[in-house]
Write a structure and sequence with these properties.
Length: 179
């Protein structure tokens, strides 16, 4: 066994990627402090053909050098928008027909393996600040909360890891079941 070379992977060009159909999912980053986490989010969103990243509040925006370091060019392929705050972003997404999921350990949260996604429903996944999580005022505007099950002592993942887990499960369900 050996690693596949880039020439046989059949990857899209940035222009082709921008023109391809995206999944009806967006991620909302609620006041993330780390440009490295934001860059990782770009790279993960590129991998799963997410419609856009919504950067809210204090989130850095491209071409921030920390974002560029971990995004590895995904800032050129993934659509992004900046909003002064998460609530105005969420309200706008609701007007566009998105179901808003907070990714947070919360009262009434649903464990990830119990959530079903369909390609027919637009979804927005809200990820919170690395230290404080999602603000309660923002949580009040979400339609529900998804919790990633864990058995360790920390009861939290790095936000970039959470983004990968949530998008993988979304992608897996959409690709496997074609709902």
């Amino acid at each position: 066994m050996k690693q596949k070379s880039y020439d046989i992977l059949g990857r899209s060009s940035i222009e082709d990627y921008k023109n391809q159909e995206k999944y009806p999912a967006v991620i909302v980053l609620d006041n993330l402090r780390s440009g490295l986490n934001i860059g990782s989010a770009f790279r993960t969103c590129d991998a799963f053909a997410v419609r856009s990243i919504e950067l809210c509040g204090i989130c850095a925006t491209p071409p921030n050098k920390e974002i560029l370091k971990t995004a590895l060019g995904a800032t050129d392929s993934v659509q992004w928008n900046h909003h002064k705050d998460s609530i105005s972003c969420i309200n706008h997404l609701k007007e566009e027909g998105y179901h808003i999921w907070a990714i947070e350990t919360a009262t009434e949260s649903i464990s990830l393996e119990k959530v079903s996604f369909t390609v027919k429903q637009k979804v927005a996944f809200v990820f919170g600040n690395e230290v404080m999580g999602i603000n309660d005022d923002v949580m009040a505007h979400c339609d529900g909360a998804i919790e990633i099950p864990q058995i360790g002592t920390k009861h939290s993942f790095n936000v970039s890891v959470s983004i990968g887990i949530i998008l993988w499960e979304y992608f897996r369900q959409i690709r496997n079941y074609g709902n």
